[in-house]
Amino acid sequence: ECSRLMVVGVLHYRRADVTDPLALAGLLAEADGPVVLYLALPPAVGSRVIEALADLDLPADSRVVAEKPFG
Question: What pairs with residue 66 in β-bridges?
Fold first, then answer.
């Protein structure tokens, strides 16, 4: 229970257009350390997201997680 509360205490949910580099840059500007970008998106959007992330400086030790869609 203690571990769960510790993890929940540091999580922040943000919603953004992940194909928009400016929107992503705005989210990253709020971060003061590593981030986890958890992406649950249709396959047709995947390459656009990677293109939007390509020129951004993610904080060190950040992670991008892509959920495999059903279908």
Answer: 39
